[in-house]
Amino acid sequence: MKLFLKADRCYTDKCAVSRRTYPPGQHGQARIKQSEYSLQLREKQKIRRVYGVLESQFRGYFEKAERMKGITGDNLLQLLERRLDNAVQRMGFGGSKKEARQLIRHGHFLVNGKKVNIPSFILKAGDVIELREKSRSIAHIQQSLASVEKRGFPTWLEIDKTQFRGKVLALPTRDECTLPTVQEQLVVELYSK
């Protein structure tokens, strides 16, 4: 399944998943019967892979989502979507989540006027994300901003390209999570065992 991990390459015909839709190896085209557990595990791994989160971090997000009011699966996706590295990538400052994470780690971003270098920083409604003055001339960021229309833009974020600034308008809902077909209920069932 295409998870859009390779920035602009996943939006072209050069994407490996588009060219070959089966796993590599001698037995890649064989039909495999999957158990219920393997389906649940695959969904969890898919979400972890898309957001670039380690297992212990993911477990922590799940426990936090369980304590929140509402549907646990929707809360989990909302928490992951509100991470700073995800918002930076969605705004177009970075081509991929890995690139956005590295830019944050190197201290290129301010949140509400304060330098933040933690990619897992959870954003709230009304937070303003801004590229530092010294970092605005980086060519790679400018290229990523130019190609943001190709990827699509979420409605819970607002961006001003001229000021290199973005704002969290509201908390994301399940419909606004632009994930490939994910069944978060399977993850909830997996962790509820």
Short structural description:
By secondary structure, the protein is of the alpha+beta class. Helices cover 41% and strands 9% of the residues.
Key features of this structure:
193 residues, alpha+beta, five-stranded antiparallel β-sheet, 9 helices
Present the secondary structure layout.
Blueprint: H1 16-19, H2 36-51, H3 55-67, H4 72-81, H5 84-91, H6 97-105, E1 109-111, E2 114-115, E3 128-131, H7 139-146, H8 148-151, E4 157-160, E5 165-168, H9 184-191
Antiparallel strand pairs: 1-2, 1-3, 3-5, 4-5
Helix pairs in contact: 2-9, 3-4, 4-9, 5-6
Distance between the terminal alpha carbons, to the nearest Å?
Answer: 26 Å
Order of helices and strands: HHHHHHEEEHHEEH
- Strand residue content: 5-15%
Net shape? globular
Going by helix content, strand content and strand pairing, the class is alpha+beta
Averaging pLDDT over every residue, what do you get? 85
Specify Rg, calculated over alpha carbons. Answer: 18 Å
**Biggest sheet layout:** 5 strands, antiparallel
Lateral arrangement of strands in the main beta sheet: 2-1-3-5-4
Question: Can you characterise this structure?
Answer:
This protein is an alpha+beta fold. Helices cover about 40% and strands about 10% of the residues. It contains 9 helices and 5 strands; from the N terminus they run ααααααβββααββα. The chain has helices spanning about 15-20, 35-50, 55-65, 70-80, 85-90, 95-105, 140-145, 150, 185-190; strands at about 110, 115, 130, 155-160, 165-170. It has a 5-stranded antiparallel β-sheet, with helices on one face. α5 (about 85-90) crosses α6. About 25% of the residues are buried.
